[in-house]
Amino acid sequence: MTEVDVLIAGAGPVGLSLAIELGLRGITCLVVERNDRVGYSPRAKTTNVRSREHLRRWGIADALRQASPIPLDYPPHVVFATRMNGFLLHRFENAFAGQRVRNELYSEESQWVPQYTLEEVLRTKATSLPGVTVAFDTELRGLTQSDDGVTADIVDVKTGVPRTVRGQYLVGADGSRSFVRGAIGARMSGSGAMSKNTSIIFRAPDLAARHGFGQAVMYWLVNQDVPSVLGPMDQFGLWVLMATKLADDVDPETVDPADLVRRATGLLDLELEVVRTDPWVAHSLIADCYGTGRVFLAGDACHLHPPFGGFGMNMGIGDAVDLGWKLAATLQGWGGPDLLDSYQLERRPVHERTIREAVINYQTVGNQLVRPGIEAPGPDGDAIRGEAGDAIKATKYREFFTLGLVLGARYDGSPIIVPDGTEPPPEHFSDYVPSACPGCLAPHAWLEDGSSLYDQFGQGLTLLITGAADDGVDALVREASRRGIPLTVLTHPALHDLYQARFTLIRPDQHVAWRGDTVPESGPLLACITGFA
Hints:
This protein is α/β, with parallel strands linked by helices. Among the domains are: 2-69 and 114-189 and 284-359, FAD/NAD(P)-binding domain (3-Layer(bba) Sandwich), CATH 3.50.50.60; 411-529, 3-Layer(aba) Sandwich (Glutaredoxin), CATH 3.40.30. It is 29% helix and 25% strand. The chain has helices at 13-23, 49-58, 61-67, 115-127, 179-184, 257-265, 312-332, 342-362, 366-369, 378-400, 403-406, 471-483, 496-499, 522-529, and strands at 2-9, 29-32, 46-47, 78-81, 88-92, 111-112, 132-135, 138-146, 149-156, 162-172, 188-203, 218-221, 228-232, 238-246, 273-287, 291-292, 295-297, 303-304, 461-465, 487-491, 503-506, 512-516. The model has no long low-confidence stretch (mean pLDDT 94).
């Protein structure tokens, strides 16, 4: 029997991120994946600033840059046009905060990169860590749990050879059709099967030279024929086209993908090779339970929404981070009995807010933006296109400028957050106002030596001192040591105005757990933050 600390079902971005979070803390884990490799289709294309900050913390942000099949100086713009040989409707620049310029609000810009490239970078990091094993062609087929662990039945899908794995915990990061979700009796609720869509991955080396809109990561094609979204997957002519909201009587499996591409782009003579098709259905669903006993769910296994805004994969990586440090703390003995219970309490409100935004974005795709006569020549067509451009600017801005959502996710109200009586900034999808209010993401800052403040945070708790220290700090350090809590102490007086307190305790996931001008009794404070209260 194989024994590990944590068994993870699913080797997508969520499962691999969890393995890294655990492996870096010395926790042994086995990741099982029923497929023979990481994904074949691009799926997610946006690794947002928050996920990139986690990659930086794991030491692989630069590795993803270097692995990208898209040049690093490729402009992160979004173009709306009727077709690739048609009329420009609107252009958004620096979508998703993807420009490679230093920004005070975050340590890493977003990156437009196929999901399979990210997965390879994550897998390489995960398997480099002692105690982490990734097994492809291996399927989880059964699980039982007791008070002291989980027993799982796994099978080599090529040979049919079964084996048993025993873990302290099991996490289902096994996607929308999660076996683990069914095994624990969790149920999804919401709006399922909102509409049919299909993605077509194709190779057309001449496409980039056949239009005059300039380079962009997304081209929204707004026409009455095939409303769709087009994007580059590499610099050599690999593209993905997503045809949105197909008619109910259209079977994506029977549609000629090459014909769809040519009609959508308007390039009827375009030479192309269809590499893969990927029909999919939009959902807006969330699980009623994120875990029971020693079994948990993360990523698409517990929440699904339309892929508009680039939230899904990134939200799943956030799940892996939140759950990862809590599992490690529990296994290492400094996390208490209430720590893992806070996982659903903290993440579910983030999921609900993000799902609402994704649904809003999906309500206005090319199908809704198109107008009769939008491709007509002359002044009449210009007027119609002007109206469409105004509508695009008004309704689609919130899809591409989302720092308020991405960096503004917070955990106020969590039982392991100690409130200080202040109110966090109002929620806004776009505008992000840094705040050290407990529960918020610790405000970012670039230090005098050019490094990021985040680079100095520890793997455990971090005490940031921005004023004169007192005896309470020594007591806190002693109490943390007594409890086995890893604690890093930083002193940066120049950050007092940013943090608005002399002392701030920051969690392993870089969210503020507590702040104040005096350190209270250390025992109760640390007990609350680590789930013992």
